[in-house]
Amino acid sequence: MNRNKNRKTRIMNTILDSAQKAIKNWWISILIGILYVGIGVWVMQTPLESYISLSIIFSTFILVSGIFQIAFSISNKSEMKDWGWYLSGGVLDLLIGILLITHPMMTMAILPLYIGFWLLFQSTLSIGLSFQLKSFGTLGWGWLLFWSIITLLFSFLLLFNPIFAGLSIVYMTAFALITAGVFRIFLGINLKKIGKNL
User: Fold this and answer.
1) 3-state secondary structure string, the chain?
2) Which residues contact 83 (CB under 8 A, 6 or more apart)?
3) CB-side neighbour CA atoms (13 Å) of 148
4) What is the pLDDT at residue 118?
5) Interior CA angle at 32 toward 142 and 34, to 5°?
6) pLDDT for 2-39, tens place per residue?
């Protein structure tokens, strides 16, 4: 009985120590969120005729997002238990961004699928982050989970309804980016609050 209690205490202390060090770069999450929301608003104002510019902007956005996420994971690799997942997400964004920038015609043809798979990966990662925040007793974790699920639903819509996605890609992409951005901003704010409470 005492052994189990000691083990749980050690695990909780390890998690708390890890979180305390990992949240030092909470502002990166907010920066990524603002970037998502900014691009989402810009995309919403872009008419369907400028689909080419949307593909170029999206490619650049994915590339920059990947760089930020890689920086976040590497700067926290000695403190974060699951830093490899964040690194792999950043590397995936970076590779997809490079691929999209170097093949603009292909990007326009299959942009809904790229966005769908990218949002699927990001929302799955965000759902995991929400439950990690729940384990720290963060009050806003439910909102983070909500926005992650909304983004996940958009990813499924893009992947499984290509005709609809092709007709409304500009507005769907804008809304999906805004929801992903809101999640990132909430995440950064909650990481900052956790840091003050530890």
Assistant:
1) CHHHHHHHHHHHHHHHHHHHHHHHHHHHHHHHHHHHHHHHHHHHHCCHHHHHHHHHHHHHHHHHHHHHHHHHHHHCCCCCCCHHHHHHHHHHHHHHHHHHHHCHHHHHHHHHHHHHHHHHHHHHHHHHHHHHHHHCCCCCHHHHHHHHHHHHHHHHHHHHCHHHHHHHHHHHHHHHHHHHHHHHHHHHHHHHHHHHHC
2) 73, 74, 76, 77
3) 20
4) 79
5) 85
6) 555 555 555 445 544 555 555 667 778 788 889 888 88
